[in-house]
């Protein structure tokens, strides 16, 4: 039996706690200004991620006014004891916000590539992480897709080209579309990736009605377990998955 890996995908909303629709208005200032509760929220997230091997995070901050010029991916790495971290900055709003996507990992990747996703409005990226050798590697793609369907279709077309270069791929993130969407069907048809559990509602976290957050895998990876976690800090719920790798793929210890 191959190595078992625990995965987590989570849109953390930059450490902002959201529990009602009205908070999008009353807490909107927290998206551009620092606030004391942010780091106690992040400490809770750090305790959550301690139990996983590879964690894909969306809506981080790479170090701006609102985060007290602290890189939130690095902060979570240090607080959780996850030895490896990396982040990709996708959009900067002056000195107020530096939107990023990040990975925390117990294993050191052999390659990381920052992809800029196509779209009329710039600021979306795909973080490519590869573990192991070219032929016996695990590739993890962490995404935060565009809000419009047209842009997502273009972005999934771009992503499918990357996926099809490798045998063992995990794709995770806030895809801003559901399991039964046209763009998800397009990705699966082009890549043969699969989503083991459909209609897993993750948004909004206080009353989940939409399944926007996903983990998909290629058929070579055995899925042992997948579920959305009842951890309502951000406006999204995290998604966890345990997979078993092929015998030929080793991520280290």
CATH architecture: 4-Layer Sandwich
CATH class: Alpha Beta
Query: Major β-sheet, in short?
Result: 6 strands, mixed
What is the total number of structural domains?
1
Number of strands: 11
Q: How big a fraction of the residues is strand?
A: 25-35%
N- and C-termini, Cα separation: 16 Å
Helix content: 10-25%
Overall shape: globular
Q: Which spans of ≥5 residues are poorly predicted at pLDDT below 50?
A: none
CATH fold call: Deoxyribonuclease I, Chain A
Count helical runs: 5
What is the CA-atom radius of gyration, in angstroms? 17 Å
Task: Please explain how this structure is put together.
The chain has 253 residues and is α+β, with helices and mostly antiparallel strands. The protein has a single domain, classed as Deoxyribonuclease I, Chain A. 20% of the residues lie in helices and 32% in strands. A 6-stranded mixed sheet has the order 3-4-2-1-11-10. Strand 7 (137-144), helix 4 (149-163) and strand 8 form a beta-alpha-beta unit. The longest helix has 15 residues, at 149-163. The radius of gyration is 17 Å and the shape is globular. 44% of the residues are buried.
Output the keywords.
single chain; 5 helices; five-stranded mixed sheet; 32% strand; alpha+beta; globular; 253 residues
